[in-house]
Design brief:
heterodimer, A: 99 residues, alpha+beta, 3 helices, B: 168 residues, alpha/beta, five-stranded mixed sheet, two-stranded antiparallel sheet, globular
């Protein structure tokens, strides 16, 4: 489904750390403030403001979940579902009996 | 040179290819638009987080829904007061390392930071209520038909002027 978002403030941060590192209040505050500024200044629907913050690549963080998500495990066991996943067309609920 | 965000920087291999493919799917639709009616310094702001955050005293998000049907997830939402602190919540999203948000809720739902911006006068008020839901689902019907209207109804009741949606 295409994303029809009125205003986007794009941030290059890892998943699960959208506002910034844990306990980094200064970064979190700066990102939120910049986001609200973008919200105020954007005048055309669909505008993307690219926030200027750089993620410190020296911060090696494991951002993966502790175990693979259920959908990843399902697709490994039943790779014939991969086309449905790629096209975002889930199977009928009744087909779940075979999972 | 102005920064251009690389949306795929923290993805590689198969997940990266999937996300790039998903970005091409679907028809382009008219983007909903409401002009901001007043300066941000006069606005009441609410945060909506897709991290699946719930109070420890509230009903947990049901992760078994997704474990039973990996195409789906718990479609409900939770309400979090503006004063909610990190120790008050648990994070239920199954596709991220939730430990960062468990250490500091502001990573995914910056309620404390929003209160700071209120104190600094950048916004008028942090809304009384903020919201979270489970962001992963490939069966969005319940989310779209029940959760989203429920959140919108409460936002209107609290006369919220602007919403920051924080994806994870």
């Amino acid at each position: 489904m295409s994303c029809g978002v009125p205003r986007i403030a794009a941030i290059e941060h890892p998943f699960g750390l959208t506002l910034g590192p844990a306990q980094d209040a200064a970064r979190q505050l700066a990102v939120l403030s910049a986001t609200l500024r973008a919200l105020e200044e954007i005048s055309q629907p669909g505008t993307v403001v690219h926030l200027p913050f750089e993620w410190d690549i020296g911060k090696k963080l494991n951002t993966l979940p502790p175990e693979a998500p259920p959908i990843a495990r399902l697709l490994r066991r039943h790779p014939w579902y991969v086309p449905k996943f790629l096209n975002r067309t889930p199977p009928e609920v009744r087909d779940l009996a075979i999972l | 040179m102005a920064k251009i965000v690389n949306s795929y920087r923290f993805l590689d291999g198969i997940p990266k290819r999937i996300m790039k493919h998903w970005a091409t799917l679907g028809e382009r639709r008219q983007i909903p638009w409401s002009p901001l009616a007043k300066p941000m310094s006069q606005c009441t702001v609410s945060i909506v987080s897709s991290a699946g955050v719930a109070l420890r005293t509230d009903e947990p998000f049901d992760q078994e829904i997704e474990r039973r049907d990996p195409w789906s997830s718990d479609p409900s939402y939770r309400i979090l007061a503006r004063s909610t602190a990190t120790g008050d919540v648990r994070v239920y999203h199954l596709h991220i390392n939730a430990s960062f948000a468990q250490q500091d809720l502001n990573c995914v739902m910056p309620l404390e930071r929003l209160s700071q911006l209120e104190a600094q006068g950048e916004i008028a008020h942090s809304a009384p209520s903020h919201y979270s839901y489970m962001g992963y689902t490939l069966r969005p019907d319940m989310l779209l038909c029940h959760t989203v209207p429920g959140i919108i109804g409460r936002l209107r009741q609290e006369q919220v002027d602007a919403v920051v949606l924080v994806p994870v």
